[in-house]
Design goal:
The complex is a heterodimer of chains A (114) and B (811). Chain A has 114 residues and is mainly beta. In chain A, 4% of the residues lie in helices and 39% in strands. Chain B is α/β, with parallel strands linked by helices. In chain B, strand 23 (317-319) and strand 24 form a beta hairpin. The longest helix of chain B has 20 residues, at 770-789. The chains are: A mainly beta (114), B alpha/beta (811). Strand 2 (24-30) of chain A pairs parallel with strand 39 (808-810) of chain B. The structure holds siroheme, flavin-adenine dinucleotide (FAD), iron/sulfur cluster (SF4) and FE2/S2 (inorganic) cluster.
């Protein structure tokens, strides 16, 4: 996280925790495309590109359970923390960093280099 | 600090417990395993293919030694435990290895029984239990010619077949008048003997062994009570097994035939658990894998400290693993008092089927030659399903129950490897069989995860189950209650009952009270629970939109590109120029890319962007439209034909009837989607006989139909009854829908539901019990007051616009 902070301008305020249903997601439009910001029932927040590694389904519309989201199109399960599809499916989706300060949320609009 | 768990017996049952434990409670124990055999854990039931040369030792390994290391398990292979010190809580192996325990698990299996006749210890007399025995037999088959197998049961016949495959001359000696007498009746036994004889196997029936004759060079012959002799170079004793209780007995644990355990799989010393063939539970010992795995699951659950699973005994079924012989047996097939036998017999074709039925329930089944329906009969037996409604077609199989879809394909064992089993995901038979063998899959869920077969529409589930049964030999899964999903041990019924009786009104309460294994369920159980809550407590349970699939959450159908489709309700398929104009204007204003007439007599606006939805809905609402619920597990369309208003054949006003039904029931949430149709005469232009509730007008009134389905698995309706007035049509419809709402499993359409509970049950509740019908209809109408009070499109376009725009735009 420290490394990314160097290019400070990429961090933006996106709203508060309460703007996102729990467990659920909302979308932030970025230059890299739509980013799905997920909130789990334990109030953890994760961000992934809103494109399923299978056929591009909008993950933000999927059901969030534990640290997984089920893609609404063909029900692949994606790990919110790793961005990887749950075995035996294979595939990976770009991850983004989110920072919580109190209930305020900040998103780094540059994807993590994996 | 971690507690110490020691397993004695590196076999199928004990290791299943360990496998379960490392997934459900990976950090609870330091695990040590003792195994007398010098191998990892292998699939014992595959010894017969190993003997027959159809498999190698590598093929049948479940967990090789690497697996133990990977999971941090200390593995003492080739070490036999000889003593348990219950006070000092330690076990000792023959070579002096000692291990301390907090919990001890015994999985010592059984010992083959050896008839104590003179000569039983001669060289060349072997049993059939483990890899060592198989190696001995293979060795013998290379040097010797004539084998005698004593025992014409499952094991004996498999050994005999294997030895024959290795080129030996084999005679099976059996004490009883027919083979496998514990699993087969006389007729099936004789069919089996005939087909084995045709393959060159010889038999000596009703022959009692008196002595095994031989000398320093080993066995020479088997002598019988009547004085006759049969020359032999190899004798296999396969006359039965005895639970291996020696170690437990020496430790002072209470044993009868086996080590006696409670429903939690604990012995009389609560620190010591036992599973598998060494165990006696409620007076029974088991000798097949399926019940042992059930025990193992319970035991793991108890050892993990969850403590909510109990073992209540199992019903078992048997299959003989001799290539080319189809034989299936389950339950009790004696024709005692009150038991009717339904029999099909074709001696020339070698097909024999017998079902024993008591009080309209299957209590036993013996199938020979055609076992395609075995898993279906077994399911009916296990679940105690009433067969009253299809008793006359029972023997002809599930395919004859009226569904012309996948159900018609049986005999999956005879299909070629490239036959496609799962049409949704394009999975072939060969791939499934290979995955079962390679990954040692034992349950339907495991197959779904690894191959995707049966993971989409589910219509091939039956075929996959048959493949599992055929590939695994014994029955692979005996769970009497099928859990809703991997998050819980409870079945749909149990959960529904708990919600009703425990007055649970929120997801949180269900998760807490029923000890869900996951923090907030999964994509399978959460929608189901939400439905059960709101249908049971319409006034008290809040509808949780985060527990709904996207379509229901957005009140529109998601499309492959992430846009949505919008289908306004067109009552009974009747519209007006003004309505059509309004739809046309919306389509133009929002640049809707596709406007399509649906198969359900209405108009679909496809390709609407999420942000446009509130606007589209607002405009449609203003023109008087409501949501068509094309997205919901809810009332969908009510198709009608023009009926007596216009049609020269029409007998009743089917259009008005359809509109009234739709006005009454729109907005109702149901376990799966619910479709209706009303036709004006028996020509049935509205296709009412493939709908969940169909009405066909007749001269004297209306004929009511239920349980039709036009989707994946075509099923024509059953006739419920005839009524005279439109008021009655509505009352019966409301009652039927309510019964379905209250009792079906989530995602179970009326067609499979009716097949599960039986048409006569539905008739009894909706037709025969008039007061009950009225009460059902009243409950339906009452919950409709609430359902229709809020029209989703209007509410959303007015109050929740914010949900449809991005949280933030940073471009
Ligand atoms: C739009 C429509 C096709 C069309 O262009 O005509 C359609 C479209 C879809 N159908 Fe259908 N079905 C449509 C009529 C039918 C019919 C015909 C009928 O209702 O008379 C059937 C067979 C009759 C039946 O259901 O018994 C039908 C059987 C299915 C099935 C299989 C259901 C089954 O029990 O086997 C599915 C899959 C499911 O529900 O799980 C399905 C699922 C779907 C879904 C919802 C697939 C999905 O999950 O995304 C499609 C949504 C497309 C969309 O966004 O609109 N659709 N679908 C029809 C909408 C009718 C309407 O006005 O509401
Ligand atoms: C040839 C054959 C074919 C079969 N076919 C089928 C079939 O088709 N379908 C079916 O359902 N079932 C079948 N079975 C039965 C099935 O294999 C058994 O029910 C199952 O393996 C029993 O599991 P278990 O763990 O109780 O015992 P086992 O698998 O026998 O495991 C017990 C293990 O404990 C070890 N052990 C015993 N005492 C000690 C000790 N003191 N110290 C250390 N280790 C010890 C033994 O060496 C053994 O490895 C078949 C069995 C055989 C032999
Ligand atoms: S048949 Fe139904 S589910 Fe299949 S593509 Fe057509 S609309 Fe979609
Ligand atoms: S696009 Fe996500 S599962 Fe297919």
């Amino acid at each position: 996280m420290e490394a990314a902070n160097k290019c400070e301008p990429t961090w933006i305020a996106i709203g508060t925790l309460d703007d996102i249903p729990a467990p659920g997601a909302r979308v932030v439009e970025t230059a890299h495309g739509p980013v799905a910001v997920f909130r789990t029932s334990a109030d953890e927040v994760f961000a992934l590109l809103d494109r399923c590694p299978h056929k591009g389904g909008p993950l933000s519309e999927g059901m969030v359970h534990g640290r997984l989201v089920t893609c609404p199109l063909h029900a692949w399960h994606i790990h919110l923390d790793e961005g990887a599809a749950k075995a035996p499916d294979v595939g990976c989706v770009p991850r983004f960093q989110v920072r919580q300060e109190g209930r305020q949320l900040y998103l780094n609009t540059e994807p993590l280099a994996d | 600090m971690k507690e110490k768990l020691v397993l004695v017996g590196n076999g199928m049952a004990g290791m299943k417990v360990i496998e379960e434990l490392v997934t459900i409670a990976p950090h609870k124990y330091d695990i040590t395993v003792f195994g007398a055999e010098p191998y990892g854990n292998y699939n014992r039931i595959m010894l017969s293919p190993l003997l027959a040369g159809e498999k190698t030792l590598d093929d049948i390994m479940i967990n090789g030694e690497g697996w133990y290391a990977e999971h941090g398990i200390t593995f003492h292979k080739g070490k036999s435990v000889v003593e348990i010190d219950r006070v000092g809580r330690q076990v000792y192996a023959a070579d002096g290895t000692v291990a301390g325990y907090d919990r001890l698990l015994l999985g010592t299996g059984s010992k083959p029984f050896i008839i104590p006749v003179p000569g039983h210890a001669l060289a060349g007399v072997v049993t059939y239990r483990d890899v060592h025995d198989v190696n001995t037999m293979l060795e013998a088959s290379r040097q010797r010619q004539r084998a005698v197998v004593i025992g014409g049961g499952l094991l004996g016949l498999e050994a005999a077949y294997g030895l024959m495959q290795q080129g030996m001359d084999v005679t099976v000696v059996h004490l009883m008048p027919w083979l496998m007498e514990r699993q087969l009746d006389q007729t099936a036994g004789s069919y089996l003997q005939r087909s084995l004889e045709a393959r060159g196997m010889r038999f000596r029936m009703q022959a009692e062994t008196d002595e095994i004759v031989g000398g320093a060079r080993g066995v020479e012959a088997v002598r019988f009570k009547d004085g006759s002799e049969l020359p032999a170079d190899l004798v296999v004793m396969a006359v039965g097994i005895r639970p291996n209780t020696g170690l437990a007995q020496r430790a002072g644990l209470y044993c009868e035939r086996g080590v006696v355990v409670s429903d939690t799989m604990q012995t009389f010393d609560p620190r010591i658990y036992a599973v598998g063939e060494c165990v006696q539970h409620r007076g029974r010992c088991y000798g097949l894998v399926a019940p042992l795995f059930e025990q193992a699951k319970v035991c793991a659950n108890q050892l993990a400290g969850y403590g909510f699973r109990y073992y209540e005994g199992s019903v078992t079924s048997t299959k003989l693993k001799v290539t080319g012989i189809d034989l299936f047996s389950a339950g009790d097939f004696q024709e005692t008092d009150g038991v009717d036998a339904i029999v099909y017999q074709d001696p020339a074709g070698g097909v024999y089927k017998k079902l024993c039925v008591r009080n309209d329930r299957i209590v036993g089944a013996v199938l020979y030659g055609d076992t395609g329906e075995g898993s279906w009969y077994f399911r009916l037996l296990r679940e105690g399903t009433s067969v009253a409604d299809f008793r006359d077609s029972l023997l002809f199989g599930q395919a004859n129950l009226g569904d012309a879809g996948h159900g018609g394909v049986d005999q999956v064992a005879n299909l070629p490897d490239d036959a496609q089993i799962c049409d949704c995901n394009g999975v072939c038979k060969g791939a499934i069989v290979e995955a079962i063998g390679k990954h040692q899959l034992f349950t339907l869920d495991e197959v779904k995860v690894h191959t995707k077969a049966a993971a989409s529409c589910g219509s091939c589930t039956g075929l996959v189950e048959q493949l599992l049964a055929a590939t695994m030999g014994g029955d692979y899964e005996t769970a009497k209650v099928k859990p809703m999903c991997p998050c819980t041990e409870h079945s749909h019924e149990q959960v529904r009952r708990a919600i009703r009786e425990g007055h649970l009104t929120s997801l949180r309460q269900v998760f807490d009270n029923l000890e869900w294994k996951t923090p907030d369920g999964c994509d399978k159980c959460r929608p189901a629970l939400n439905y059960y809550l709101i249908s049971t407590w319409p006034d008290q349970a809040a509808d949780d939109s985060q527990a709904r699939f996207v379509n229901e959450r957005m009140h529109a159908n998601i499309q492959k590109d992430g846009t949505f489709s919008v289908v306004p309700r067109i009552w009974g398929g009747v519209t007006t120029p003004a309505e059509l104009r309004a739809i046309a204007e919306v389509a133009e204003k929002y640049h809707v890319p596709t406007v399509k007439i649906t198969g359900g007599q209405r108009i679909d606006l496809l390709g609407v962007k999420k942000e446009q939805l509130p606007g589209v809905w607002g405009d449609l609402s203003a023109a008087g439209f409501v949501s068509g619920h094309a997205y919901g597990k809810a009332l969908r369309t009510v198709k009608t034909c023009v009926g007596s208003e216009w049609c020269r054949f029409g007998t009743q006003d089917s259009t008005t009837c359809g509109i009234e039904l739709e006005r009454m029931s729109w907005g109702a949430w149901t376990p799966h989607k619910f479709k209706m149709a009303v036709s004006g005469c028996p020509r049935n232009c509205a296709e009412a006989t493939i709908k969940d509730f169909g009405v066909v007008a007749i001269e004297s009134g209306w004929e009511l139909h239920v349980g039709g389905n036009g989707g994946v698995k075509l099923r024509a309706t059953d006739v419920l009854c005839r009524v005279e007035t439109m008021e009655e049509v509505k009352e019966y419809c409301a009652a039927f829908m309510q019964l379905y709402r209250e009792e079906a499993h989530y995602l179970e359409r009326t067609a499979p539901w009716i097949e599960r509970v039986g048409l006569s049950y539905v008739k009894q509740r909706v037709v025969e019990e008039a007061a009950g019908r009225k009460a059902l209809a009243e409950r339906f109408l009452k919950s409709q007051q609430r359902a229709q009070a809020e029209e989703p499109w209007k509410t959303y376009s007015r109050d929740h616009k914010a949900r449809f725009v991005p949280l933030k735009r940073a471009v």
